[in-house]
Amino acid sequence: MMNPVLNRLLHALVSLSCDFRVRFHDTALTTEQAAGFVAGDPTGNTKCLALRDKDGARVVATVCGTSRLDLEAVRAAHHLRRPRMASAAELGSAFGVEKGGVAPVGYAEGVVALVDKAVLEQERVLISPGINHATLEISGKEFARLTEHFGATVTTISRIEG
Asked: Rounded to an integer, what distance in angstroms lies between the CA atom of residue 21 and that of residue 41?
């Protein structure tokens, strides 16, 4: 059975007539591992992080691979009290993905998607499509259409690693 997040993503990409490419590779559990399978500008790689809040909110935050997630900005963007990284068990039960397979959008109702606006400015964006053994390649412009389709909030939620 196909992963539901992957299924929703692929359906949206096709219905929006987006130009995209899916590359299958060995399992990657980190952004760095995934980047090793698909060469190119590291800023186009993304970090998609699943967060849980003390009150039960589920949030996926996406930033450029060369940036760090700013938890204070995430708190402000979604009025969270105490967000924390979701555990591996919560990735499956609350988000429907596996470790290394957090996608920026495509979740069932109730998962809020936040995307750093810098991601949309990239010429090429590499994201996990909901599974940890594939990478989806799409232009920043097409990714912007995809985020809009899923109702993701685009804002500044990152800071440059230094």
From this structure: 16
- Identify residue 145 by its one-letter amino acid code: R
Whether the CB-CB separation of 46 and 31 falls below 8 Å is answered with: yes
Q: Which amino acid is it at 85?
A: M
Do residues 143 and 120 make contact, with C-beta atoms less than 8 angstroms apart?
yes
Q: How confident is the model at residue 56 (pLDDT cuts 50, 70, 90)?
A: confident
Tell me the pTM: 0.91
Return d(Cα 86, Cα 69) in angstroms, integer.
Answer: 14
| Region for 110 from its dihedrals, namely left if φ exceeds 0, alpha if ψ lies in -120 to 50, beta otherwise | left
DSSP 86: P
